[in-house]
Amino acid sequence: MSLAVVFSRARHGLEAPLVTVEVHISNGLPAFQLVGLPETSVKESRDRVRSAMVNSGFAFPDRKITVNLAPADLPKEGGRFDLPIALGIIVASGQLAEKSLQGYEFCGELALSGEIRVIVGEIPVAIACRDAGREMVLPMLNAQQAQQVPNVAVHGADHLLQVHSFLLAQQALPAIPPLPQREVKQQPDLADVKGQAHAKRVLEIAAAGEHNLLMLGPAGTGKSMLAQRLQGIMPPLTEQEALATAAIYSIAGLQRNLTDWQQRPFRSPHHTSSAVALVGGGSVPRPGEISLSHHGILFLDELPEFPRKVLDVLREPLETGVVHISRAARQAEFPAQFQLVAALNPSPTGHHQDGRATPEQVMRYLNRLSGPFIDRIELQIEVPLLPKGMLSQHTQEETSASVRERVLAARQLQLARQGKANARLTGSELAEFCPLQQADAQFLEDTIHRFKLSARTYHKIIKVARSIADLQQQRQISRAHLMEALSYRALERLLSYLKN
Questions:
Q1: How many Cβ atoms are within 10 Å of 402's Cβ, its own excluded?
Q2: pLDDT digits (tens, 9 = 90+) for 282-339
Q3: What is the mean pLDDT of residues 201-218?
Q4: Alpha helix stretches (DSSP H) within 39-176
Q5: Strand 297-300 and strand 266-267: pairing?
Q6: Which carries the bigger pLDDT value, residue 224 or residue 178?
Q7: Of 167, 79, 63, 144, which is closest to residue 116 (Cα–Cα)?
Q8: Strand locations in 217-302, DSSP E?
Q9: DSSP annotation of 422
Q10: Using the 8-state DSSP alphabet, how is residue 347 labeled?
Q11: What is the DSSP string of 392-411?
């Protein structure tokens, strides 16, 4: 037969759209024509496929070969189509029966020797193939990672000859090595942080409700230590959340370590990072740090050192939980439901009361942060210097394990009540699940107007108060919960004080 059809998968954001590889061999001068909007890396497959077939002992047709990658309007990139193109030529030239391809999809880059090399994005490919009801043949290392997808039929191969023998039913493909046993990676313990009871309390509230957190304080007070210990007190990822996170890492060319499988991601980009590095982008859109922090923590240390325009691109994802990337030829959408934790010094000198910085210098330093950006951070606290003698005292601090128990109990209340963390509640859900007494609602509104805070802040304070009540296992939000939530607006108070 001179025509063959092979199924494969492209990469488009977090999706893996079906690509039909059509191979036609006809009479005429020897030629290899590749159509269907292929990029340069795909066009180069002509030489890779030819050498791989010859070196594997297959006859390469000395005729006109036309390969169409359908749909024609979907851009194709990478070497993932090498394997299906080679199999299509083998079938179209009569070296393999077409019926042997039925029920399978293929992805893999070919070496000149015929070996099959890894591709990027095996998790979305495996999910899409499973949903289509077909079996997937992948490079061995990709197949091992794809086993994390439940109920997927995946096969791994190391060489083109192995796939050919498998399709001829002559020899089974090698067994995929089992995934290493999942283990819980030991995290830094909260007991290592001396003192700072107020900051630890707020860290617990942030973990319970998945609230954004900003820590303001002099250098060396433990802000980074506290941020690094937030991961250890947060609830573990569910299987669905862990798979979504693994899919993002997969398309970014990274791998989630199985020892971290159910631990929330913790990303800490340097302040020289660009806007594209944070939110994603490129001619072929790739996920940025906020997507790699999906269902986890994005820690921004030395916050004012980030360019203001870089921080402002985070404003929309902080609200919506997704990021839309548009380029002239490509559009992509990546999930970005992350928890922002930021740390900053109160002045360019590291202290705001040491006399080395004037109020004007402090204002210029803090004004690098826009008001709308600060408005989106629910918890803003000061982390002061430790009192004299605290470092030398041998006091027993509360461990992460005991704090985590309270956080888990509070999160279970939220999931049972509304199916999500408090920070993710919408406006209508807030009215349903976080009702206030009439007097308390009036008190909060009067306070918001007195301090000239926004309506967004009004809603965020209610969400924080709901988390405080959940930690105390209280059904109703009280005035005390609202007052405590109002107290966690340190940066806004400092800016107001400096302006006056």
A1: 11
A2: 877 889 999 999 999 999 999 999 999 999 999 999 999 999 988 777 788 899 999 9
A3: 94
A4: 40-43, 45-55, 82-92, 122-132, 140-146, 160-167
A5: parallel
A6: 224
A7: 79
A8: 266-267, 280-281, 286-287, 297-300
A9: G
A10: S
A11: T----PPPHHHHHHHHHHHH
Nearest in space to 444 (alpha carbons), one of 303, 435, 253, 313: 435
With tokens 């493909």, the residue in question is 173
Both tokens of 80, joined, read 């993932």
Measured CA to CA in angstroms, residue 130 lies from 121, 124, 227, 375 at distances of 15, 10, 39, 43
CA atoms of 204 and 175, how far apart (whole Å): 45
Residue 272 tokens, joined: 């020289």
* Residue 355 banded pLDDT, cuts 50, 70, 90: low
Backbone angles phi, psi at 7, to 5 degrees: -95, 140
DSSP strand pairing (18-26 vs 64-70):
antiparallel
Mean pLDDT of 88-109: 94
Cα distances from 209 to residues 51, 163, 188, in angstroms, run: 57, 50, 21
Q: What are the tokens at 136?
A: 């997937």
Residue count of the chain, please give it. 500
- Please classify residue 440 by burial: count the beta carbons closer than 10 Å to its beta carbon, then call 0-12 exposed, 13-18 middle and 19+ buried: buried
Q: What is the pTM of this model?
A: 0.89
d(CA 37, CA 46): 15
Sequence-ordered list of residues with C-beta below 8 angstroms from that of 419, at least 6 positions apart, any chain: none
| End-to-end alpha carbon distance in the chain | 84
How much is the average pLDDT of 68-84? 93
